[in-house]
Amino acid sequence: MKQTDMQFPEGFLWGGAIAANQVEGAYQENGKGLSIADILGNGIFNPPYEHPGKKNPYHEAIDFYHRYEEDIALFAEMGFKALRTSIAWTRIFPNGDEETPNEAGLQFYDQLFDCMRKYNIEPVVTLSHYEMPLGLVKDYGGWRNRKLIEFFERYAIAVFKRYKDKVKYWIAFNEINVLLHIPFVGGGTVIEEGENKKQIIYQMAHYQHVASALAAKACHEIIPGSQMGCMIAAGPYYPHTCHPDDILTAMEMDRQVYFFTDVMARGYYPTYVKRWFKEYDVELDLTAEDEQLLKQHTVDYISFSYYKSRCASADPSGLEMVSGNLAMGVKNPYLKASEWGWQIDPTGLRFTLNQLYDRYQKPLFIVENGFGAVDTVEEDQSIHDDYRISYLRDHMIEAGKAIEDGVELLGFLSWGPIDIVSASTGEMKKRYGYIYVDKDNEGNGTLRRIKKKSFDWYKEVIASNGASL
Question: Does the keyword Hydrolase apply (predicted)?
Fold first, then answer.
């Protein structure tokens, strides 16, 4: 397909994506309780602090809580059709197990969604994005406890009822497959030495699958015409060589990711899981009622983050490994990498879109894709981030090719349209945005917003519905 033939469908949802814990700040204002994000070290891969009051980059973040009107106006200036954000669960239920929601928290999101609607920006809202209530961790052990299904359903119903006229697109859990790699961040659970790690992880996953099904049920009942999605951290595993063992290993690694979407999109546990559970000595607390809920309340669309691909080898010993966005893999010698070692593979996005659509035949939604880099502010206050433009353009072109392949794609929401606290490292210097925020890793700065070169570039992409790519 010629680049000049690029066609995105009418109504395509161009925009960006953020998360409450990485932008809002105001971590104890207006009745908000502590979340797991409030006690993390510098990034999700570091252990939690012993003392929740210790200074943390998420505590102030970029002060979106007080500056959202300014930021939404900038997104509107770019022409955003949609903005993905999350609700901080602890603003609504500070400990997580209350019977009645916190009105001040509900009012904040009323104001935020009203502001977005004023500019005709469609909210895409995640219910749980790496910031579950710390109270549910301390009092119940996190998602290893079935009680959390009840608490999550109560939370979901409360926000569905409140925002039924304001939000159409919902996502239950951000990157649900993070449970495999960081169970504390994904499930609020610390796995002790001697425990069967696989048993706990897959039990947590099951309870979240059931919670997602109940959320889908409530969403459809409360909000006619609403769409409930699931979300994974995606990116294919390529065989490191054409050796059959490498090909089989790559298939197995892909299945570890697609296990979650298999359950939530198809409504049942796939057959290959029976072998896994036997090998791992896993026995799920899975009831007949659970199975019915999963079957009857599947998701309407599949959303995902995509930053990189990876390679898999049956024998990785001696091979160079690389990491990025949750998962390790063998280094691909054909790809370049970012400053943080994330290998850059636009073609892998097209591959992923086709792989997911062939597997499920449900609408897809790219809700995270972007390039983290160190940006330099010139003396005239300009920021020339051509590297970011190049990365995003190449990925958007591949998304367009996937649409030509026949993939039903709802939209493209780039990650971090404004600089935010990095989830993986807790840094500010790792910037993704079209808008620079004057803040450094030590928390110093004015929080002033500055448009980068990519701001006007993305504005033209949206205005042309991708034709300018």
Answer: yes
